[in-house]
Amino acid sequence: MDDSQVLRNIASSVILTMHQIPQINHLPIEELHRIPLGKLRKDATRLHAVCRYRKGISKEQIRGPEDVRCVDLHPEATPVQWEEYAKFLLYHEFLHALGFTGHDRTFRTLEALWPNKEAIGMGASFSAHLRRRGAKWAWTCPKCAKEHLRSKRGKGRYRCRDCRVTLIDVPYQTSRPNT
Hints:
Largest sheet: 3 strands, mixed
Number of helices: 5
Order of helices and strands: HEEEHHHHEEE
Structural class: alpha+beta
């Protein structure tokens, strides 16, 4: 199955689940099927998903899914091991598409309605997975051995937060596939 079909299947599952949440099932959820789905760059480490709006429309003007250009998901979120987190990411972005553009109390309340509570908390481990995957250097404390994975050398510019000792650059070896 190709990536676009995987994304469509995940989106269909999310939309079906959204219909079953009483607090939001009155919203135009069925229109979410029309939103094009895409992928972020595979080297993105901080962004997991994004809801992109049509040009010329500010967040204050968003009326609903018709104002959304696309929703992009990180390509690393689609394999089976991250599929539950991918569903939560799409739910999060679909809430934005429905007009909840900020991350205010209302948005967080709606976000917390997602039934898979474990998936809600997977963001930190997904971020760590992306950092490990893209790391070329480990800024290492020679005193406490704490590692900070980075893509660039530190060149002696950084200190350990705990020990106040200058971090050293150690090439990071990982078993990642050729990208």
